[in-house]
Every structure is written in C-alpha cells, then in structure tokens.
Design a protein that fits this description.
Layout (H helix, E strand, L loop, with lengths): L14 H16 L4 H18 L8 H14 L4 H18 L24 H8 L5 H13 L3 H5 L6 E2 L4 E4 L8 E4 L2 H14 L18 H14 L8 H14 L4 H8 L4 H5 L6 H5 L32
Antiparallel strand pairs: 1-2, 2-3
Helix pairs in contact: 1-2, 1-4, 2-4, 3-4, 6-8, 6-10
C-alpha cells in the first residue's frame, strides 16, 4: 500500500471528535504543516480514535502501541505509511492534547531512501510539448525551470516576477522563509505568452475561477500524468519529479552544490547531496549543457511591462 493508503477519511465518532480534529488541523497549520499533510494526519488520528472506541483523551500508551502494532502486523502497511501515523499521533498528543508523556520515545520505523525519479533533458522537453492548455504549459514550465514545489508555484503572484533582475520571489515556501529562484529568458517568454492569453485578474499568476484563490493542485498532477503518457514516458511523473529533474540537470550542467541548495530551499546540504547520486554527468565525469529553460546568464534592464494601475504587470 502506498504512502497515502492508510489516510482515507475515517468515520468520525461524534461531534466532539470532529471538533477535536478541527482543532488538531488548526494546530498543524499553525505549526507550518501543509494542508494536504494536515488532512492526512487528521485521517490517521481519526482512524486511531475509531479503533479506540472512546475519547482519545482517555487513551493510554498501550493503546497507541497497540494501534501501531495493528498497522504493522495485521494491516501490514508500508513503513512509510506507519511513519506518517506515528508522526500524526505524536503531534496530536504532544500539541493538541498537551500530553507529550504518552508518546515520549515513540519511534517511527526506518524507511529506506528511494532513488529520485528524474527525467532526462529530452524527456523533459517532450513532456512540455504535450500540453495543450496555455495554463498547464506555463505552470509545468515554471515547475521545471525553477524547481518550485507545487504549492510554491501555485502561490506565485505576478508582482513576484522580477524580470530586471532575472529572479522570482518564492513566498509560499515549506519553511515559511521567502527565497529567490532564477528566471531564464525562455521561461519569461513562456510566462508572458501565457499572460497575453489568460490575463489573470487579481494578484495570483495562476488563479482558480475565483481570482483570489489558488487552483486545485490535483489538476496539474493529472495533466502531468496525461502529458507523460502522451510523450511516451514510462516514468510516473508528478510535480516533484520536475523538481528532482531541475536539481539534477543543474548539477549536470556544472552548477555548484551550494547554489542548488539555495535555489531549492533545502535547510541541509545533505538533502541536496542526494541528487549527486542520480546525476549521470557526475557519474560520467563530464558536464552537460543546460537546456534553454534553465539558462540564466543574462540580466534584463526592463521589468515585466505596464500594469493596470501603478505597479508592473506582464504586457499584453
């Protein structure tokens, strides 16, 4: 069973449990967890509460250990899924119920590191050519050309794009710390072409039907999967695969490890170091030329163009 297999929304016991899960989700969001993570964690805790059969406030450490053993031995879930459940329960008892002693020392199973799925430069080019929608093409190009996470890309505002400096400000980061990513001439041209067609209202570059809200990330995930099939790529393609490919291609093009770390927003360089293991250029000992989407040597002297109002906006 996959990582999210055990995180199906459970049947909630009663209104009190619903209120408790709502408070738990708010604690998770305040603590910096992504909404998708919060939803998954809440489902795990709801599963625990359903099996417990009484209020979680009355749970014992034995109940928690019994639940983890149930997931491991009876349901035989993958270590990665059990790890999520352990993290969910630890946060629940430590923060929401303020009972850290109950889960003190509770260990998550070790999960073997998986080799990142990486597209070749040719595969990335073929993939991007298979998008028919201007929005999907621009968003997929942004993901590959900057290495942004999907949540970061969907949170980009038009005013975050600084064409004069050749950078994009990423504000909706995992660490809540803004960072800069590089803006190539090719990516700027694609974003401008998208803007001419869609002319999004409001601040977001990729808004939903409500111009103040971000679109559902499921749509781009599905579009990537469909484009991969059309391109004849056998690998399972997700937004994070484009991030992996971006990092790997930069390293293969001779970009130093510390720069790649900063562009990806990794807190530890050890996380970035992982990409050296999947870089064919490093294995072969020779650098590769970067694709146009990733080449950022030029500096521009003009911004994105006139805006309706006082700020700057992409030209029509």
């Amino acid at each position: 069973m996959g990582t999210w297999g055990a995180c199906v929304e459970p049947e909630i016991l009663n209104s009190n449990m619903r209120d408790l899960l709502d408070a738990y989700v708010q604690d998770l969001l305040i603590g910096g967890r992504a909404r998708r993570t919060a939803k998954c964690y809440a489902a795990c805790v709801g599963d625990f509460a359903s099996r417990l059969g009484r209020p979680p406030e009355k749970a014992t450490r034995g109940d928690v250990v019994s639940f983890i053993n149930h997931l491991t031995l009876e349901r035989q879930l993958a270590p990665s899924t059990i790890k999520i459940n352990v993290y969910a329960l630890r946060f629940f008892f430590e923060v929401t119920l303020r009972n850290p002693a109950l889960v003190e020392g509770l260990k998550a199973p070790r999960v073997d590191a998986k080799t990142a799925v990486v597209l070749s430069q040719d595969e990335a080019t073929r993939l991007l050519k298979c998008f028919r929608s201007a929005t999907q093409f621009a968003l997929a190009s942004l993901l590959y050309a900057t290495g942004m996470r999907i949540g970061e890309a969907l949170g980009v505002r038009v005013d975050d794009i600084d064409a004069a400096r050749g950078v994009i400000v990423v504000r909706q980061t995992k660490t809540r710390r803004p960072r800069l990513v590089r803006l190539s001439d090719e990516l700027l041209a694609r974003l401008r072409a998208y803007w001419r067609v869609k002319r999004p209202e409001g601040p977001l570059l990729f808004p939903s039907k409500d111009p103040t809200q971000r679109p559902d990330p499921t749509l781009i995930r599905r579009a990537l999967r469909d484009a991969g099939r059309e391109a004849g790529i056998k690998k399972s393609i997700t937004p994070h695969v484009l991030r992996h490919s971006y990092a790997t291609h930069l390293l293969e093009g001779g970009v130093d490890l510390h720069t790649v770390q900063m562009l990806l927003g990794h807190a530890s360089i050890m996380t970035t170091l992982h990409y050296l293991h999947v870089s064919t250029a490093h294995l072969a000992g020779r650098p590769q030329e970067l694709p146009a989407l990733l080449q950022c040597e030029s500096r521009r002297s003009v911004g994105l163009g006139p805006r309706v109002g006082a700020s700057s906006r992409m030209p029509a």
